[in-house]
Every structure is written in C-alpha cells, then in structure tokens.
Design goal:
Blueprint lengths: L8 H8 L10 H27 L2 H12 L4 H8 L3 H26 L1
Helix pairs in contact: 2-5, 3-4, 3-5, 4-5
C-alpha cells in the first residue's frame, strides 16, 4: 500500500489516536460520539426518503417548526395554512420519520 509522502510516522500516530481512545479511558466519549453520528446518519437517510414521499408544503411545515424553530403561527402565515394544518403536517412527517428510522435500524441489524 502506498501512503502519501507527507504522512509521517508521528502524524500517523496522531491521526490514529481516536481509534485507540478506549485504551486511554475515553471509551464513553467515543461511544457517545459514534452513537450520535449513527443517529445523525439514520435521520438524514430517513429524511431524504420521507421528504420525497410527502407534499412539499407538508415537509416545509415540518422544516419550519422543527428544524427552523419557527412558531406554529409563523409557519401558518408563511405557508398560508391554518395552524391546525401545520400541526397535522408536522405530526405526519415526524411519524413517518420514526417509522422510516425504525425500518432502517431493523434492516441493518
């Protein structure tokens, strides 16, 4: 295997440190970071799939209220929908995300 010339032995050791973190008592932090990254990846995969399956305004209601932290009133005004419609749209997207994430987790196990 050919390694780049600028990758010195010292630098290789520095880069490998996170791989051996559990040998230095940092296991919990490493495990938490791995779990967080796994959850983030699941969410992104599920979100991509759910987003193409729902109406654009339904996704936008979710995006405004959950991702952008806008109030229901603001989302309703932005989308020219009732507050009730915003609640329903957000709930539908969140339910579909939960189902999709569960499906992805089961598929990988």
């Amino acid at each position: 295997m050919h390694y780049p010339e600028n990758l010195t032995t010292e630098r290789s050791v520095d880069l490998a440190q996170p791989l051996f973190a559990d040998q230095h008592g940092d296991t919990l932090q490493s495990d938490l970071e791995i779990e967080l990254e796994y959850r983030r990846e699941l969410y992104l995969r599920a979100a991509f799939q759910v987003r193409v399956d729902v109406e654009p305004d339904t996704w936008r209601a979710f995006e405004l209220t959950v991702i952008d932290c806008k109030s229901m009133d603001e989302a309703a005004l932005t989308l020219n929908k009732s507050i009730g419609a915003i609640y329903v749209a957000r709930r539908r997207v969140m339910q579909r995300l939960r189902e999709k994430i569960k499906w992805l987790e089961n598929r990988e196990s």
